[in-house]
Amino acid sequence: MRPYVEANISHKSHTTIKYFLKMWSSVSETLIFIFLGVATMEGPHSWNWIFVTATVILCVGGLTYVINKFRIVKLTTKDQFIIAYGGLRGAIAFSLGFLLNESFEMRNIFLTAIITVIFFTVFVQVKILM
């Protein structure tokens, strides 16, 4: 839609929309990470070493290894790192896990594993980059 919208609005409107969307994106990300922090501190967690460790290993690198077995054009190590870093620390996995029904018995284990993966990708992978 970008080519059609940009051609039909003024430069001032284009600038306003661009900065509004950047601001809305920053506010949304901030609210999600505040909610993540609150859920981390107050939520009932169920820690299972095997499940959490397997989840971190599979999410950070294991799944792309399995995918490469079936792809014609293989993902490089750099591609795998970008996928793991860019996609797993976001709010989608946390939101989907949080929306699980309260009566689902594995909900707390899932939320604990999701939060662990998010923290691993935010803190450990960032330290590797620096």
From TrEMBL:
It is a multi-pass membrane protein. Keywords: Ion transport, Membrane, Sodium, Sodium transport, Transmembrane, Transmembrane helix, Transport. InterPro entries: Cation/H_exchanger_CPA1, Cation/H_exchanger_TM. The keyword rRNA-binding does not apply. It is found in: Membrane. Residues 7-126 form the Cation/H+ exchanger transmembrane domain. The chain crosses the membrane at residues 21-41, 47-68, 80-100, 106-126. This is Cation/H+ exchanger transmembrane domain-containing protein. It comes from Xenoophorus captivus.
